[in-house]
């Protein structure tokens, strides 16, 4: 969990009702590939193709005498039922990816691939003979070359009405035919709809694209009378998506299909030359798009066999691969550019550094932390003020620019945190050398403030330092010092292993001084208009020997967490202001746009229907509204039930608010025309950056170099420019988001395994969204979002959906006891959770209501 993190969420949109469509729709390509095969008049070729198909079936006993379910449309998506995962196999410790060698050329595969090519060409040839109106559904629109498009965008930059608009593709997770282009422009409230694979024009999730708006007659009228703009992609400025996916192989009609797990990825017709000799339906494969010749026809090749479906290690590796995360060890050639694992600091390393080794400096981190990026200190001065220090590991002293290892690290950009292990951004030797472990001399980059007792900042300075941490403390241990529980302090005194002659009382005084100052800083920050949306986070606990899940718990936020967060935020804000002043065109900053009006208004109106009024005029006013809704801070039994309902309601409110927010991103300061646009919405500060975690974030390494250059006058590398800063910022954004997604998927995987081990469980959930066929809810004791399909209770109840007065309601008349259950947003419902027998997804079923204790 980032000590200086701000919640980043994006809004998820549903496809619009087609009934409101203006203008006529083009015809669809309903023909299947099997139908087109019938048009081939070469009988021998057809017989040979049948023989190839039979060879495919015979290669695996698992596939013998079985037929796969037919696919109606190559680009359609079905539920997870189509991924026939086997039961969990014995866990393997092997984590090596099996890379495929090119298969020997075979006559059968040649004929097969030639046939696939001819089918594709025949598609296009047939479509060319159709009139232009129908032809649109069979071919992609013409694209504009990237360099030409960049010139066009520059020419129209001052135009009020722009012909071409730049944005990021977001594909609907359920209906992949629909995508939206998110525009990072506060003046454009609505995302632009891309309807159909043709208009998406081969663009993939998160690609940066340029779209051309369609005529208004092709826009879609919404229920409120406004119009949803529609467009087509005419240029892919940046292919962010790797065009790779994880999935399974299926024998479909006369061809081999690759069905990806990701519903946003197209189904591929596979080149048989890339197929291994020993594949079967119980394997997970990695494939890549080879040629996307028509909207409904895409070919690909197999890159590797990931492993057996259901194998726990394989499933974890699949998460890494599908998020494009490289975790291969750094090779020896790259390691030549950094010190070896037995490197000892020398006097050369200590030159021009302030020696703070005699100061009482210590770290406060999660109990399991290995990468110790930051340490803190506090000393009371004779004038009554405090000298407060934040000391950050000096990674860039060892990690030099213009080296191959730096280039590789910049591409990884972030440490990856999965449930079962951590994949470090830096090589192990560099992590150990830089990490601020207690009792060892370490190099730091420090910020030191003089503060008054009421936390007013008198002055600050930056300094390269030598430090020697006195103690590695966990948040829980620091909290005991804050609570000043002498009994508990004595219990863990020996566990702290305090170095450098300091005692537990020394640490207690410093921690409490820092806590008092942090409370004042925090109150001032929120009084000045900051916003923080805390969403529930689940922590899965593993058995130390088997590494299998044994239990779970919701992450608890302590005062000690807030203490560290405040000083890390202060450090980042102090550095951001400084580097922007020195490098106004090339400073790497952390930027957070205000939410789009349409998104926050939608949330506001939805909650207002249930008597919850949020003030969304500013971040500070939204924060104040949320604070008023928090539960009573009292442990008395009379408040427990009430607090449970309030806490459950807060889960929904904060999740909905988070989904309305824009995602915070790294940017190059020179890309903003106005300094005011650099403002960070949630923190409500003019400048912000990341400086405090260089061991696990490459963005922080860049900021360290900028800060050092500004202090010493030593120039940045000759290739440093706004273009390079932008490119690095974009990659840091992309990898940070991918790593976060992998972390969430890993948590879901292990939680599903825990449910599978323990068997079906009855629990409580609070309703967040209501739709005609399903309910989205949050598990009250877990904080995890679930989907409840109402079709699962069709034999046990009658379900009726209404939306009177814009309040979606589900009425369930249960057959047993003639119970009628009315479900709205915020309703507490009883559900049964079980693990899917064939994969690691959860199945949730609505249960009849009964009195449930909140505990």
UniProtKB/TrEMBL annotation:
One of its GO terms (cellular component) is P-body. Coiled coil: none annotated. GO terms for molecular function: 3'-5'-RNA exonuclease activity; RNA binding. It comes from the Eukaryota. Residues 353-713 form the RNB domain. One of its GO terms (biological process) is mRNA catabolic process. Pfam families: OB_Dis3, RNB. Residues 1-114 are annotated as: Disordered. Residues 19-31, 87-101 have a biased composition (Basic residues). This is RNB domain-containing protein. Gene3D superfamilies: 2.40.50.690, 2.40.50.700, Nucleic acid-binding proteins. Belongs to the RNR ribonuclease family.
């Amino acid at each position: 969990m980032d000590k200086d993190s701000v919640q980043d969420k994006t809004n998820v949109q549903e496809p619009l009702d087609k009934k409101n469509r203006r203008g006529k729709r083009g015809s669809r390509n309903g023909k299947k590939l099997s139908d087109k095969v019938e048009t081939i008049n070469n009988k021998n070729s057809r017989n040979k193709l049948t023989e190839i198909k039979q060879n495919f079936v015979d290669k695996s006993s698992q596939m013998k005498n079985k037929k796969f379910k037919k696919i109606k449309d190559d680009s359609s998506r079905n539920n997870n039922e189509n991924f026939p995962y086997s039961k969990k196999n014995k866990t393997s410790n092997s984590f090596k990816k099996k890379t495929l060698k090119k298969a020997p050329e075979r006559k059968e595969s040649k004929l097969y691939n030639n046939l696939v090519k001819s089918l594709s060409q025949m598609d296009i040839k047939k479509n060319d003979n159709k009139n232009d109106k129908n032809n649109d559904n069979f071919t992609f629109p013409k694209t504009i070359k990237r360099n030409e498009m960049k010139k066009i965008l520059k020419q129209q930059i001052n135009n009020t009405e722009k012909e071409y608009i730049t944005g990021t593709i977001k594909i609907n997770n359920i209906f992949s035919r629909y995508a939206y282009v998110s525009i990072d422009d506060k003046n454009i409230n609505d995302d632009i709809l891309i309807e159909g694979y043709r208009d998406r024009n081969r663009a993939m999730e998160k690609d940066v694209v340029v779209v051309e708006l369609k005529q208004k007659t092709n826009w879609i009228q919404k229920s409120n009378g406004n119009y949803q703009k529609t467009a087509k992609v005419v240029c892919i400025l940046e292919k962010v998506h790797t065009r790779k996916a994880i999935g399974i192989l299926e024998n479909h009609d006369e061809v081999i299909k690759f069905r990806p797990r990701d519903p946003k990825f197209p189904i591929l017709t596979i080149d048989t030359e890339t197929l291994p000799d020993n594949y079967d339906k119980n394997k997970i494969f990695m494939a890549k798009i080879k040629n996307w010749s028509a909207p409904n026809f895409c070919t690909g090749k197999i890159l590797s066999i990931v492993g057996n479906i259901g194998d726990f290690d394989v499933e974890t590796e699949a998460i890494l691969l599908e998020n494009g995360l490289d975790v291969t060890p750094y090779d020896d050639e790259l390691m030549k550019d950094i010190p070896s694992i037995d490197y000892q600091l020398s006097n050369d390393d200590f030159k021009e550094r302030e020696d703070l080794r005699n100061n009482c400096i210590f770290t406060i981190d999660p109990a399991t932390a290995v990468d110790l990026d930051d340490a803190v200190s506090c000393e009371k001065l004779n004038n009554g003020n405090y000298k407060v220090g934040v000391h950050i590991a000096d990674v860039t002293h060892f990690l030099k620019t213009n080296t191959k290892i730096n280039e590789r690290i910049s591409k990884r950009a972030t440490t990856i945190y999965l449930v079962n292990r951590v994949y470090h951004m830096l090589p192990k030797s560099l992590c150990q050398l830089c990490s601020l472990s207690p009792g060892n001399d370490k190099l730091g980059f420090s910020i030191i403030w003089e503060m008054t007792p009421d936390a007013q900042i008198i002055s600050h300075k930056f300094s390269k330092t030598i430090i020697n941490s006195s103690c590695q403390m966990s948040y829980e241990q620091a909290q005991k010092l804050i609570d000043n529980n002498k009994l508990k302090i004595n219990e863990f005194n020996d566990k702290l292993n305090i170095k450098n002659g300091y005692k537990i009382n020394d640490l207690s005084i410093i921690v409490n001084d820092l806590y008092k100052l942090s409370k004042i800083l925090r109150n001032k920050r929120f009084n000045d208009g900051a916003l923080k949306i805390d969403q529930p986070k689940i922590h899965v606990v593993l058995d130390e020997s088997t590494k299998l899940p044994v239990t779970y718990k919701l992450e608890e936020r302590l005062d000690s967490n807030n203490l560290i967060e405040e000083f890390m935020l202060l450090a980042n804000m102090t550095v951001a202001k400084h580097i922007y002043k020195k490098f106004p065109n090339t400073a790497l900053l952390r930027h957070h746009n205000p939410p789009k009006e349409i998104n926050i208004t939608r949330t506001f109106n939805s909650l207002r229907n249930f008597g919850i009024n949020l003030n969304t005029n500013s971040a500070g006013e939204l924060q104040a509204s949320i604070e008023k809704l928090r539960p009573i801070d009292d442990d008395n039994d009379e408040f427990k039930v009430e607090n449970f309902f309030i806490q459950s309601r807060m889960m929904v409110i904060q999740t909905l608010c988070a989904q309305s927010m824009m995602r915070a991103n790294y940017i190059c300061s020179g890309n903003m025309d106005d300094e005011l646009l650099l403002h960070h919405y949630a923190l409500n500060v003019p400048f912000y950056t990341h400086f405090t975690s260089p061991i696990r974030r490459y963005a922080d390494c860049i900021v360290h170099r900028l800060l050092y250059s500004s202090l010493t006058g030593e120039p940045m590398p000759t290739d440093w420019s706004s273009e390079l800063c932008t490119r690095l910022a974009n990659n840091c954004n992309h990898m940070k988001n991918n790593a976060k997604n992998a972390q969430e998927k890993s948590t879901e995987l292990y939680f599903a395994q825990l449910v599978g081990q323990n068997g079906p469980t009855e629990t409580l959930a609070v309703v967040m969204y209501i739709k005609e066929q399903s309910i989205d809810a949050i598990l009250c004791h877990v904080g995890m979002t679930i989907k409840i399909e109402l079709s699962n209770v069709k034999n046990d109840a009658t379900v009726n959906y209404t939306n009177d007065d814009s309040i979606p309601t589900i009425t369930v008349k249960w057959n047993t006891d003639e119970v009628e259950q009315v479900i709205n947003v915020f309703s507490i419902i009883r559900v049964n959770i079980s693990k899917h027998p064939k994969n690691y997804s959860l199945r949730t079923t609505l249960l009849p209501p009964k009195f449930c204790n909140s505990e």
